Batch of 2 targets.
Target 1
Amino acid sequence: MPVGFNTDDLMRLDELVATRKKVKQGGLLFSEGDAFTSLYAIRTGFFKTCVTSEDGREQVTGFQMAGEIIGLDGIVSDFHSCNAIALEDAEVCVMPFVNVEELSREFPVLQRHVHKIMSREIVRENGIMMLLGNMRAEERLAAFLLNLVQRLHARGFSQSELILRMTREEIGSYLGLKLETVSRTFSKFSEEGIIEVKQRYVHIIDPEALKKIFNPQVCY
Amino acid sequence: MPVGFNTDDLMRLDELVATRKKVKQGGLLFSEGDAFTSLYAIRTGFFKTCVTSEDGREQVTGFQMAGEIIGLDGIVSDFHSCNAIALEDAEVCVMPFVNVEELSREFPVLQRHVHKIMSREIVRENGIMMLLGNMRAEERLAAFLLNLVQRLHARGFSQSELILRMTREEIGSYLGLKLETVSRTFSKFSEEGIIEVKQRYVHIIDPEALKKIFNPQVCY
DNA sequence: CGAGTTCTTGACAGTGATCAAGCGACGTGG
DNA sequence: CCACGTCGCTTGATCACTGTCAAGAACTCG
């Protein structure tokens, strides 16, 4: 959004993303109960966010990659309500939320941008609710793969090949399935020639078949 | 938030919520694909929001009551991505989003308020993901009842009695269950003396038992 | 009062969970 | 460089929860 800003404006916006933080693979960027101070823009690396119930069950609420924002959960109560864990070595921009708000007041395009990011997250979660509430294991995994490869492609990676950064268990948690079911479903897709799987490596041979599984609508 | 505002400020804030709209039971406040222009604050009545998949499956994404805000889904793309349906005759304040943004820039407390509302929705949906991904039918329904009665109580209604505004099917859709399962689970709670159910009327006899079902953690 | 909707309940089926065992990949240290 | 241990993945057998199908009852509203 480099339109209509003078040098001073740009400097101040630049400052917002000046602070960097590195997180090692397996490390926590923030966790449940931490005081909320900042949003984080992922520069490199890959994260999962998850919540845990009192009796220890874990629910992965999302996987985030470069360019995506995490930490929005903390705004409402000034405390984070989920954990953000790096699935590979990562670097983030630390954006103190008071600064985000201050600059938002000055720059309507930034304000709108922030609102869109939050709205996008709400809409994404609506989609996950549909997935978890209405879809069967195969549909869930097909949707998951299509979403992942689409986001990677938007970042310049292959449209048909990817390396999963998460375990079967984490995929299962996200999709409301057990790891065995995830594994079996991968195997099934593989047997049907839709994908090729070798551990974390996935090659999508027939994306149309995946789309059809995800969305088995009327065929005229 | 009536602190530090002069008369002119208050008039402008008042203007934001001046426009009213009535929606009859069963009526749509907005639906998927509608252009997004406004957020809506519910004054009276009860809504459900839902998304539909291409092949016609419906997922209820939330139930909203007086004081709650709907329409946040539309911000990201300028089009609504869900339907908002009145489950009883309702009245809402129409808040044009451009005005919300303009006033947010002027009044930091309003800005913060808007951010919290969006964050709260994100956190709520995280909780639903946990529900849908990890919990069994009884846990889901217990959580649902506790949440509903808590929100009603915050509005001055009974802590132990409520009238459901939605069908078993809508509850089921929200909780990722079929209506028969919802009905059976109600019956089971009733047989166990935890609640008394008669159609839409529910009396919570033993809230502690519900909490224990919802959260069956270690008991020392 | 009657038609249609909503709810309850039963019998049965199916999807995915659970339990269990073995395999394969990876990393560390000898 | 290889051995070993750990962790993650796959696959099989069985089970349980919830879904599906069906019928009838209860309630609502015109």
Target 2
Amino acid sequence: MVEFDPDASIEHGAPLPPYRQLAGILAARIGRGDWQPNRSIPSELRLVQEYGVARATVRRAVAVLVDQGVLFVVPQRGTFVKP
Amino acid sequence: MVEFDPDASIEHGAPLPPYRQLAGILAARIGRGDWQPNRSIPSELRLVQEYGVARATVRRAVAVLVDQGVLFVVPQRGTFVKP
DNA sequence: AGGAATTTGTGCGTATGTATA
DNA sequence: CTATACATACGCACAAATTCC
């Protein structure tokens, strides 16, 4: 397990690819309480703007957290923090 | 011309590279009628999953068939079987 | 009622870096 | 050195459903 700084930014060229960095950062922010259970995290577009990555990268990071049971997605509504 | 089994899977390390195997398999499936003229074949991502190869490999195989006049691509819409 | 905005789903186009035969 | 393959990333466009005004 790698510790992530919830305030970190994405570093291109780092050993860990951006999508994994973002997944770690988002997980850290959830752990810190930035977004409460059953509440939505920012939209993909917002995360694209905030972290300066492509939408595909955001979606990949989200997919990782969905796979880990941290988030769940509701089409056309948003991505939420699992209770 | 080499005959291909439409139900074959990709074999790494075979004399023919994966992208050529896939091109042959897809051509065989088209010939068998899996996909009708003017209908789209599965997306690149689906083929990636189905055949266990990289997207670049799928794109190469498709490029071969486009070059042969078997398929045509409509940007942002899909890849279709030529009438 | 209705149309614009929002948000996720899905396609292809393209480029870069790494690894291997 | 070249061809092949894979992983990753960014961009752009359109669809479908929901939400907002």
